[in-house]
Amino acid sequence: MSEFGGMEELLQDFLMESNDLLSDVDNKLVELEKRPEDRALLNDIFRGFHTIKGGAGFLNVAPMVTLCHRTENLFDKLRNAELQLNPEVMDVILDATASVRDMFGTLGQGLMPRDADGALLAALDAVLSGRMPQAPVPQATPATPPVASAPQRSDEPDWNSLYQAVVPAARTTTPTAPAPAPVEVVPAAALVPETEPVTAVAAASRAAAPAKNVTASKSASGGGHENTIRIDTNRLDMVLNLSGEIGLTKNRLTTLRTEILQGNNDSNTLRSLDEAISQLDLLVGDLQNAVMKTRMQPIGRLFQKYPRLARDLARQLGKDVELVLSGEETELDKTMIEDLNDPLVHLVRNAVDHGVESTAERIAAGKKPQSLIQLTAEQVGDHILIEITDDGRGMNADALRRKAVEKGLIDTEAANALDEKQCLQLIFLPGFSTKDQISSVSGRGVGMDVVRTNIQKLNGRIDINSIPGEGTRISISLPLTLAILPVLVVRACNQPFAVPLAMVREIITIDPEAIQEVSGNPTIVVRDEILPLKTLAGLLGWAPTQKPGFGVLMQSAERSFILAIDSFVGRDDVVIKPLQNIRPKGVAGATLSGDGSVVLVLDMEDLLTAKDGVSGMVKTSELITI
């Protein structure tokens, strides 16, 4: 039962907009620490925090008002140069914002938050009186985690061993407990003018007037995901206009259908029918794109969480780290943004904790004392490319190879056949670890194998490039949306199947004379690259009905191979429908073809790791003689 009576709607508006404001305040605080003399930045921070306090006051959330008021007094002293900003003062401020976020979580459950921790209030009072707190202030724990994480793994890779420094140096600071990840929020700041105060009162007044931006609800999906989304009304207007155009075209088709049923089949009527169908095809395509755009959100609303995360962890580890963001305006499906949070948190933490060196180690290696981590996003064709780059130790491919052999994950022969790029992919193997002991920071993430699994669930790919002594770049390639999947429709055993087009590099004809055996398995050489040949029928566990005529050169997360098929139908954009009550191995779902037949959409990564997929090779003689 909510403690806010009939104010639930105002409470939700307050939480939605104040969460965005607080994330913006956190990011500007990190910037202020770099530029403490920037009065304009400090004034922006003051206004944002004051707006949060005003909304809390309207809702009579006294504990939040008290905490915000004391923190606001601290900002006022900084503005008036009565107090000097230093890392200790910033720690207290950030602890206060974390406590406010914790109160947001309690409010989200319809409960009144408790008073702020006494140690935090004492620390604020000490700073306001010109004294520094004697002991570190406890970090506030978010009320709800952003995404459910996997249990702690003892086999998580030891990044201190993976990242090999050119000049060995010991870490000079004992790690403490990591800062908690920020709470997942529904961003809205990019659509709200910065000069307009955002409070519960403002939200109430806007409810009676035409809104510049609206909040559209969707069905609650559980799992901690938000069930609202911010949509620019310009995009909704486009959907409305296209719906009207489709209605007019439908009326035209109804009229033409009546004429044809009455026997009017002259050339003018048929030409009009063809024109109406073509018009409908264009409008439906435009409507589909417009609807997809209503789900697109700037990825910067996810990125905005990480400067605070990187700053807190770097300070705890005694490192000097700058996290630079770029491409925040790049748009991605909101559901994908939510599912990306956990993997990106893990990768950013690893880059800060293990990728970059301590200040002393960097100086000894002849590098700049400050480490640089870059988080970028850009649209490349019909995909989004996200990269996390650091200028730290880099990873040693030979060390990864040796450790994989030591743990029995691969044999010596297979290890010696791996090139440098394939060795870097070994960190994704389940059970791969070089860890001798678990520190308070390391060993608490989801594990790189789970990170890769999460990316693959989004039909994405993750890749690693690293140079020892120079740094590491982790690249994530994702489709723009999961609602529409570009596929290549192929045929095997007289049955159509759809494979993700993102994995397809090219289509080749299979010449039986070009098939060669390597270690008993069929392969084909394509431009000096030896690629294994796998039949789709073999991966499915079916007996082939004819000799494969074509091969689809495919690239999965860590391997390239040729998929032998009977024939192919062509490219298509499909909407995947889940199969009710069943989940066959290697099948992502189903769709309908143009002729109305059902086409299974294959999950190639799942299929390749399935039992039948492991034995999906056929003998060269069988490929030639069928």
Automatic annotation (TrEMBL):
UniProt keyword list: Kinase, Phosphoprotein, Transferase, Two-component regulatory system
List of residues that carry Phosphohistidine: 50
Highest taxon of source: Bacteria
CDD domains recorded: HATPase_CheA-like, HPT
Cellular component, GO, one term: cytoplasm
PROSITE patterns cross-referenced by the UniProt entry: CHEW, HIS_KIN, HPT
Top enzyme class: transferase
SUPFAM superfamilies: ATPase domain of HSP90 chaperone/DNA topoisomerase II/histidine kinase, CheW-like, Histidine-containing phosphotransfer domain, HPT domain, Homodimeric domain of signal transducing histidine kinase
Single GO term (MF): phosphorelay sensor kinase activity
UniProt-annotated stretches for the region Disordered: 133-157
Biased composition (Low complexity): 133-152
InterPro entries for the chain: Bact_Chemotaxis_CheA (IPR051315), CheA-like_dim (IPR004105), CheA-like_homodim_sf (IPR037006), CheW-like_dom_sf (IPR036061), CheW-lke_dom (IPR002545), HATPase_C_sf (IPR036890), HATPase_dom (IPR003594), His_kinase_dom (IPR005467)
Entry's EC annotation: 2.7.13.3
Protein name: Chemotaxis protein CheA
Organism (species): Pseudogulbenkiania ferrooxidans 2002
